[in-house]
Amino acid sequence: MSLGPLMIDIQGTSLSSDEEDWLSEPAVGGVILFARNFESLQQLQSLIRSIRALRSPGVLIAVDQEGGRVQRFKEPFSILPPMRTLGHCYDENPARALAIAKEFGWLMAAELRAVDIDLSFAPVVDIDRGLSEVIGDRALHADADVVAKLACEFAAGAKQAGMTVVAKHFPTHAGAIADSHTQLAVDSREYTDLLDDLEPYRRLIGAGLHGVMAAHVSFPQMDSNPASFSSWWLKEQLRTELRFNGAIFSDDLGMAGAAVAKTCASRAVRAMEAGCDMVLLCNRRDHVSETIERLNSRLNPSGQLHLVRLRGQGRHRWQELQNSPRWRAARAALEPLDAAPTLTLEG
Description:
- By secondary structure, the protein is of the alpha/beta class.
- Helix content is 39%, strand content 14%.
- The chain has one domain: Glycoside hydrolase, family 3, N-terminal domain (TIM Barrel, Alpha-Beta Barrel).
- The strands form 3 sheets. It has an 8-stranded parallel beta sheet with strand order 6-3-2-1-13-12-9-7.
- Helix 4 crosses helix 12, helix 5 runs parallel beside helix 6 and helix 8 packs across helix 9.
């Protein structure tokens, strides 16, 4: 069975019968896990095995494991600091920060691969403009060049651990004050004012970026639709101008910023027509069946090719990983970041 264009969430620490049925549908190609799905290492491994057993080849399994306030799995996983601590480190010692960024990416990815998770939606490459509280200390730095350098090293580390890399939130959430989870988010800047925001993507794509998550942010100077529903952003800019040939994800269709249509099924169709290969639908169980029904007839061969390349490669067993010199060295490299100053938002 091929990978469908829909990624859904699940409710608890094991699969319900409804969820087993949904994950077996052709339209579904992925599942995203949250903190509510994690109780212990053994339970998580059991849950993942049950997801894998439903079909062959299996769906993509993803999580948001950025570090800081967006880290779904805690101990025994390494507690990762906010990514902004890498930026603070860069201001003091650029070479050291770049080396730590690679270890950050490797550690995050190696632990997730050890439990057979394919990908984490990271890194965040929104520039810290001091405007967006939902981004805040998830941003690496205020300088686009520094963001690009740190993100490329993070990505290199993750690849070494066998994980593909999905950067977010394209083209940027940094210039929108509103949180797209709860409100319509707008960035009124002209295109020329966004060139710095695009630079990290340009550099990551040049280094072989596997995936991009599009933002539910509208840029009315270019297109009234949010970027995740805009063929101008996804096809003309991302595919043609930036020459990106990886997978394009929408952000969660249940968010307020995605309210371009009444139903999530209609939103999913619009996002795919705009250029998304996979759409996320989270915390809206009442919309899952309808969305699956609509998408079962809209399988996209080119989108499936982009998605299949996201499968994780190779992995250590958990105990083997923790006994490895690389794991111990990576943990030691990240420890000083905990002492870095916290981000102060302005404006």
